[in-house]
Amino acid sequence: MSKRPIYKIADEISAKWPKPYFGAEPYLRAMRYVSAPEDRFGHDNGRTLAIYFLANAQSFRGNDARRLKAELKSVCDIK
Length: 79
What we know:
The protein has 79 residues and is mostly helical. Helix content is 53%, strand content 5%.
């Protein structure tokens, strides 16, 4: 099974978390413009955006949150 692009994961996160924490929001928006961890958005790559998003997404909780965070970590090879 191939991995989904980062922007697809970001779209689903936005649908499941309609009012994200203000610290996570800019990274979530930026992730909508990258497909792969090595793609660039400004000075950051997709992997860096995912790391910063995850660091600010502690208040995104529940089954969907766990699944989507795990998928994002898998796509970006984050331990």
